[in-house]
Amino acid sequence: MRNIRNSELTDRRSAANDAKAALLQAYRAAKEAAEPAQLARQAERQVVAAAREERRINRERVKTEERERLQAEAVEREAAIVAAATAEADAREAADKNRISRVIEDEAARKAERDRRYANRKARQG
Questions:
Q1: pTM, full prediction
Q2: Which of 28, 4, 26 is nearest to 12 (CA)?
Q3: What is the percentage of the chain residues whose pLDDT exceeds 90?
Q4: What per-residue confidence (pLDDT) applies to 1?
């Protein structure tokens, strides 16, 4: 009886080993059969990833160009503000100089008039 049990055990073990070998063979066959499809999917994923990376690079380039354009506009606005402030300061300075020269001319004219009156008075007196 003992041999019968052992033979059953060995039969079960060999059947399990055969089943494992069959599963392994089936797995390898399925893997080989699916390999072209897997390679195709992998190639497709690589194409999609490359396109995604290209779009990302384009977005970054557009953002960089926009940022540079805005900076250039800000520099131009700042230059225009500085130029306007300088022109305003120059105009104020010119107006001040003009006013000062008119005051000096008026004062010189008043002095000339006073000197003329003084000279006339002196001529009448003496």
A1: 0.46
A2: 4
A3: 75
A4: 42
